[in-house]
Amino acid sequence: MARLIPPDRLPAVIEAAVRVFVAHGYRRTQVQDIADVLGLAKGTLYGYAATKEALFAAAVRYGDRLEPLPDTTALPLPAPADGELAELVTGRLAAEVPDLALTKALRRQAPPRTPVEAAAELSGIVVDLYERLSRNRVAIKLVDRCAPELPELGKVWSETGRGNQMSAMEAYLDSRQRAGLFRLPGPVDLVARTTVELCVLWGVHCRFDPVPLASPSPYDDAVVATTLAAMISRSMNPTGGA
């Protein structure tokens, strides 16, 4: 049966699954909903994924195109084993951490010498964080959207993902403020969370906004990243200048 399936249709199946799970959440989504988006019979869709769980797992795993799609001989995709999806998300998050500009800044022995150098460092951190979030935006959006219904996944994102980034950002901002390089516009934990949440908002959630901005097309990721970096770094300039 798998060999009769058009090989070019699997990306459309995954894209439709992403759209429906984001729109309706995990529990409210039915396989028929995804089949309707594709204009397929539900039985045909089962040729691609054995269950709703398998469709959700495929959306998380392949939606960002970070992994090659499976060959049609591997279809229908099976439901994930217990803990498999949480392990996948945890692994992706863990793989990003060592190379984060934020991680490297925290490990740096000597801080920047001047506020100008510190502002450049922070700008690089914001751009790097945004780029990594946007690269994983589909998986993050799916996990965030369905977290209340899938607490195992929700815990991974809220603690290992976003929570750890907020803690690291707080430690970084506090160290630079104590060195006289930043003047934070508010409590360090609030500023740290706002910095991370702005990157998550623009890097992930705005691309799924059901009421998009009046702009004729989504803003280019590079433009958004550099704009956020400039806004955030300038807000912490101890001299009050640009």
Can you put this structure into words, describing what you see?
Keywords: DNA-binding, Transcription, Transcription regulation. It comes from Nocardioides pocheonensis. This is TetR family transcriptional regulator. InterPro entries: Homeodomain-like_sf, HTH-type_TetR-like_transc_reg, HTH_TetR. By secondary structure, the chain is mainly α. The protein has 2 domains: 2-74, Arc Repressor Mutant, subunit A, CATH 1.10.10.60; 84-235, Tetracycline Repressor, domain 2 (Orthogonal Bundle). Helix content is 63%, strand content 0%. It is built from 11 helices and no strands. Helix 1 (10-28) packs antiparallel against helix 2 (31-38), helix 1 packs across helix 4 (52-62) and helix 10 (188-203) runs antiparallel to helix 11 (221-235).
Q: What is the name of the CATH architecture of the largest domain?
A: Orthogonal Bundle
Number of domains: 2
Tell me the β content: under 5%
Report the span from N to C terminus: 63 Å
Encode the helix/strand succession as letters: HHHHHHHHHHH
Number of strands: 0
SSE layout and pairings?
Elements (H helix, E strand, L loop, with lengths): L9 H19 L2 H8 L3 H4 L6 H11 L21 H13 L4 H7 L7 H21 L1 H10 L4 H28 L9 H16 L17 H15 L7
